[in-house]
Amino acid sequence: MAAETPFPGSERPVIVWLRDDLRLSDNPALTAAANCGRRIICVFVHDEESEGLRPLGGAARWWLHGALQEVDNALRARGGRLCVYRGVASAVMPQLAADSKAAAVYWNRRYGAGERRVDEAVKTALKTQGIEAKSFNGHLLYEPWSIKTKSGTPFRVFSAFWRAAHEAGEASQPLDVPSRLNLFHGPCRQASTPRVELADLALEPSSPDWAGGLRSNWRPGEAGALAQLEFFLEEHLNEYADLRDFPGRLATSRLSPYLRFGNISPRQLWHAAEAAANAATNPGVHRNLEKFRSELGWREFSYHLLYYNPEISSQNLQTRFDGMPWRTDADAIRAWQLGKTGYPIVDAGMRELWTTGWMHNRVRMVVASFLVKHLLIDWRQGEAWFWDTLVDADPANNAASWQWVAGSGADAAPYFRVFNPVLQGEKFDPDGRYVKRWLPELDGVSSSVVHRPWQRGSKVEVYPERIVEHDFARQRALDAFKGLG
DNA sequence: TGACGTTTATG
DNA sequence: ATAAACGTC
């Protein structure tokens, strides 16, 4: 067969390398490519081989598939397509750039250690080939190196970090989808590495197909993100501060998986929330806006911690926790994973997670506290389960939040702060609406005992026995903490 | 972005 | 007698 030009056309194209920025709006790399006037090739490389890249969990893989599909659809609607490859990115990208005779490769930055190593290797290889490599900020309001203490060290306390972030200036305005995209629409051939179909990546579960609950609860991709944002701003922003902690109210934004894969950007949320607040007339608008923004702030802080603590998902930030006498208890872990601990608020959360790939934020704190403190099981076990089951499993947020709950984090909850799952349930799910949604065992149980079904008179016979009793577990956790010195 | 036992204030 | 307030984990 005669050799054919992999990417025909006389003019040298620009490659946009998409990663955790699966959107067309507010995408600085894409906008820069559009502005440079060259033809644009949009590329995704599925890299499961490079050292230091953590393989995605099952739920996240499902989301990634849907988000990539949506990017491809959006590009096709504009006369282009998404070119998908598989392999070691630091080899594939330079080869692809050479084969396509690209003038430049643009991407939005990542902040994990392994990801930065890969991106650095790509940049070095491209420059050796005389190809321009340029990176942008599409993932954060404030990149880690732009926020520092007066003495030049990274922040370790959220409130101080967030105050300094405000002083660093307002997040910049989001970019529109480029009005003119000169997209490449050819067959995406490459001489060295064959292009693959999205389905070839096998990101979706096949048999058994466990993704039904995910499919019926989520619509991955940019259009789904914008729809969810509009719904949240319309229905829930104006009661956000008061109701976000009540899992029965569905008052949170539910935007986390979209942020994780960059189906929407924090800059878009920052400014869209402000616009919605300005248009509202009810009292407390400012308080709700600031509360929502501070949740974006926690995400920023997590990325700050990840950048300065590359091993955050495997190493205690406070090394004294290395001496914690974690228990080995496979039965307890299994009961926790399955939502059969005997505590309704814990069990409801874990079943919501298993069914939908997501869990309400308040309940995440309760189930995490239960695993780490009541069961004395290493937070890394919980982090790993969340990594595999959450559609929003995020390299920064997941690890930083688990360490926060465990008490091993930088600015962590004190270890002696042990959530009482009964009181948390009664306080934040007073009518039992949330636990009943996920626990059919509790049908018809009165709200007065729905969070303590073992109590005499609750008439709950089928509910799992408590795997550990609260007072005992609390004391055991406090003793273990005291032993850390 | 807790819980809990104890003390103190108020009637 | 009950509820704030307080100290400790």
TrEMBL record:
- Binding annotation for FAD: Y240, T252, S253, R254, L255, S256, F292, D392, A393, D394
Q: Which residues form the Photolyase/cryptochrome alpha/beta domain?
A: 12-141
Question: What EC number(s) does the entry state?
Answer: 4.1.99.3
The annotation note on the cofactor reads: Binds 1 FAD per subunit.
UniProt GO molecular function: deoxyribodipyrimidine photo-lyase activity; DNA binding; FAD binding
Instruction: Quote any Pfam family the record assigns.
Output: DNA_photolyase
* Site (Electron transfer via tryptophanyl radical) residue list: W326, W379, W402
In terms of superkingdom, the source organism counts as Bacteria
Which InterPro entries does UniProt cross-reference here? Crypto/Photolyase_FAD-like_sf, Crypto/Photolyase_N_sf, Cryptochr/Photolyase_FAD-bd, Cryptochrome/DNA_photolyase_1, DNA_photolyase_1_CS_C, DNA_photolyase_N, Rossmann-like_a/b/a_fold
Question: What is its cofactor?
Answer: (6R)-5,10-methylene-5,6,7,8-tetrahydrofolate; FAD
Q: Catalytic activity annotated for this protein?
A: cyclobutadipyrimidine (in DNA) = 2 pyrimidine residues (in DNA)
The record's keywords, sorted A to Z, are: Chromophore, FAD, Flavoprotein, Lyase
Annotated signal sequence is: none
Q: Which one GO biological process term can you cite for this protein?
A: photoreactive repair
Family from the record: Belongs to the DNA photolyase family.
Protein name, UniProt field? Deoxyribodipyrimidine photo-lyase
Q: Which organism is it from?
A: Mesorhizobium hungaricum
What lineage is on file?
Bacteria, Pseudomonadati, Pseudomonadota, Alphaproteobacteria, Hyphomicrobiales
